[in-house]
Amino acid sequence: xxxxxxxxxxxxxxxxxxxxxxxxxxxxxxxxxxxxxxxxxxxxxxxxxxxxxxxxxxxxxxxxxxxxxxxxxxxxxxxxxxxxxxxxxxxxxxxxxxxxxxxxxxxxxxxxxxxxxxxxxxxxxxxxxxxxxxxxxxxxxxxxxxxxxxxxxxxxxxxxxxxxxxxxxxxxxxxxxxxxxxxxxxxxxxxxxxxxxxxxxxxxxxxxxxxxxxxxxxxxxxxxxxxxxxxxxxxxxxxxxxxxxxxxxxxxxxxxxxxxxxxxxxxxxxxxxxxxxxxxxxxxxxxxxxxxxxxxxxxxxxxxxxxxxxxxxxxxxxxxxxxxxxxxxxxxxxxxxxxxxxxxxxxxxxxxxxxxxxxxxxxxxxxxxxxxxxxxxxxxxxxxxxxxxxxxxxxxxxxxxxxxxxxxxxxxxxxxxxxxxxxxxxxxxxxxxxxxxxxxxxxxxxxxxxxxxxxxxxxxxxxxxxxxxxxxxxxxxxxxxxxxxxx
Length: 487
Prior knowledge:
- This protein is α+β, with helices and mostly antiparallel strands.
- It has helices at 38-55, 96-109, 133-138, 184-197, 203-215, 253-256, 262-274, 282-288, 354-368, 385-389, and strands spanning 31-33, 59-66, 69-77, 90-91, 232-234, 241-243, 259-260, 302-304, 309-313, 316-325, 328-335, 340-346, 392-396, 399-405, 411-415, 423-427, 433-435, 444-449, 455-460, 463-465.
- The radius of gyration is 26 Å and the shape is globular.
């Protein structure tokens, strides 16, 4: 029985699987790395080994991406001498949703749709026409979690040939827009939306042309291509296995159809961390990583953006997604601030905590080898003296703030004390700035000048910032007591 060579039960007339093409290698030495310390590599391999052994996975692969490249990969398997390598396909389940979300955001950037649009405006025949595209992306539409019976992950998509066939008698389970409720059929609708707005081209072909090819992900496909792993179920009370089917799920494909490799997913993780203007603008990618629904759990433990899951772990925010289909588990988590991502693939239906393992791989690298910051460099010229003159101390009432000049004429406002609000601002063509984060996200910062052209004050969403704390001559709303400060 060859774990990493078979795709499970074969269809009548199908060819026997070909070997994975990897020379026998002792399991404990199956790792690759670029520039990591020996202690870090051992910790990564140990975490993967514990996950595979305790989770009883027929095979498990892991990788870490840092600074735009794969810096470590490792594999464990139950078959001696047949260790999977980075070009072996595994089914990645709901990681597929991250790809579909990028396609939808591309359509938005091309102004073919708005995220606020009800899906029924673009897609006929859906039983949930009023759900907005943003709600579908963020799983806040209230639609049913699963497709109409029978169990869609283990049955052919031919059982559900039309979008209306995806839902039962009660497609809407919760009020739209009120809370997060994961919906696989919701992503099936998004895939149909992509096809509709791309002139009838299947979503997976659009994905190949617009995303996979530019990123060099030629081994990410809707159907398995050799070499690929076989999917297995492991008995809960005995160390025996059962092959799982691998059906084409049809219209449900956008929810979890894709197969990919560790090498390709390293490229995908790099894209999620750093972006690629050929595929999606940096601003749109950042929008995908922003929470779009109320957080789940006690405190802030988990949330969901536009096609990306968000978790808080050991004080860090990770973005990515987990995935599962019969016979397969996948996890990808990225720390954008640290520019590190961890990826784990396994070929079993349940058992190993691949999502937690992927997050741990990320954390191990961050902990063992903290990132060295880039060298300080001066801003590129030419320098605008008037803009430089705006920097320094400003006061909101009596609360001092600093205004700093950043790249591309950007500004950053921050309180000197612990009380107050900080934000970064993007320069606009009309001489104003737009808030990028924090309380002032989306708000306008403008410089108000006197008739002679000198600067009077800053106006930030009607808040007035002056050069002095409540100076009588300053234009403070409500005025300043004429007697001034007193003891």
